[in-house]
Design goal:
376 residues, single chain, 7-stranded mixed beta sheet, alpha/beta
């Protein structure tokens, strides 16, 4: 869509916010299968809704009654979350999800244990609510949402901002190179004021949204949440979802953390999804629904007849920035304001074979405003 071409990354040409679409939408078998797909989508969606309601009842009713008995509370809460998350993935067609440890240095896979403990931090990219379900199934972690001041929508390029100018084609002055493409500026980084601990269902509903406003409720620092955590803490430094085609600019979510990290173990991972086809829609969810998010995307995913797939790549703990043998200069030549965030961005891009993009969550605020305005 040319009207969103200003949101293309100047270095790669990647549009990180629009939902990916199949290269072709014509197939002779698509129409005859439509009734089957719709019926399957309705049945699967209803089952997932029932599972969500059951999870809500178990966590907010039964588990609440067990709070005076912490061991039983943790056992029931963890077992229900893990079981229902895996059941949801199974209903949607994720029969098997491959996991792979990818080392930066060849032959450095001596420690294959990837088991985060209470107070450890899991850092990952974020492109779908399916990421949330997988993390809940594997680690039963604590989810946090970032809180930041509201960004002002950009109307003109400021002198001190980095200007984006993407021009497709060869620079010959003819053909596609002569197309005039709107330009805009990369929005400056805004500080993350803190984080808010949220439930699994709240995290799923927040998929695609940008950071919360400070006026929406209380929040704490990441370190305060980590120190009091009884489970691992998941942090998405992108602070919003992309369409999976590239890695958004990381917010400065780890300011105050030194590298190597000594307070806890930092586990770094990356999730990837296959490009969409005419039979399989995109599993990424970059644009939130205005109501009952992400119900519409859930219905679309539930209509697939073939087994679903996603890939998970993990960095060995021995090569993590929490390893005391970690050398910052091998990953980041120059120290940054938030060195840990920059290190994590580089490592996730490497293990996931993803290209880094200059846009951040601040730019997605402008994109969503333009997108919603165009649809009205």
């Amino acid at each position: 869509m040319e009207k969103f071409s200003a949101f293309r990354d100047p270095g790669t040409g990647i549009q990180p916010f629009l939902p990916p679409v199949p290269s072709s939408e014509n197939d002779i078998f698509l129409s005859p299968l439509a009734p089957v797909r719709v019926t399957l989508a309705v049945l699967r969606t209803l089952v997932v809704i029932v599972i969500a309601v059951l999870h809500f009842i178990l966590i907010n009713a039964l588990c609440t009654l067990l709070i005076p008995v912490p061991p039983f509370h943790r056992l029931i809460e963890g077992a229900s979350t893990i079981t229902l998350s895996r059941l949801t993935l199974y209903v949607l067609g994720f029969l098997w999800i491959p996991e792979e440890q990818v080392a930066r240095k060849r032959g450095n896979l001596s420690d294959t244990c990837w088991s985060p403990k209470a107070g450890d931090i899991i850092v990952s990219n974020w492109s779908s609510w399916i990421d949330i379900l997988w993390l809940s199934y594997r680690f039963n972690p604590i989810f946090v949402l970032p809180v930041a001041d509201e960004t002002k929508l950009q109307t003109s390029s400021a002198p001190d901002e980095q200007t984006i100018s993407y021009r497709p084609g060869r620079k010959t002055g003819t053909g596609s190179a002569a197309i005039s493409v709107p330009t805009r500026s990369i929005s400056p980084r805004l500080p993350i004021r803190g984080f808010r601990r949220v439930s699994l269902l709240s995290m799923v509903r927040a998929t695609g949204d940008t950071p919360l406003s400070p006026s929406s409720g209380s929040f704490s620092s990441l370190e305060d949440i980590r120190q009091s955590a009884e489970r691992p803490v998941v942090v998405f430094p992108e602070c919003t979802t992309s369409n999976g085609r590239g890695l958004l600019r990381f917010a400065r979510v780890f300011e105050g953390y030194n590298v190597p990290v000594k307070k806890c173990n930092v586990f770094i991972m990356c999730t990837r999804y296959n490009p969409p086809t005419i039979f399989q829609p995109s599993l990424t969810h970059s644009i939130p629904s205005s109501t009952f998010n992400p119900l519409y995307h859930l219905f679309s995913v539930a209509s697939v007849l073939s087994p679903q797939t996603m890939s998970v790549r993990m960095l060995p703990l021995s090569e993590s920035p929490s390893s005391q043998l970690f050398v910052v200069s091998e990953v980041v030549p120059d120290l940054a304001v938030d060195t840990l965030s920059e290190v994590c961005a580089v490592l996730i891009a490497r293990i996931g074979k993803m290209k880094r993009i200059g846009f951040g969550w601040e730019d997605k605020v402008s994109f969503l405003d333009l997108y919603s305005g165009r649809r009205k």
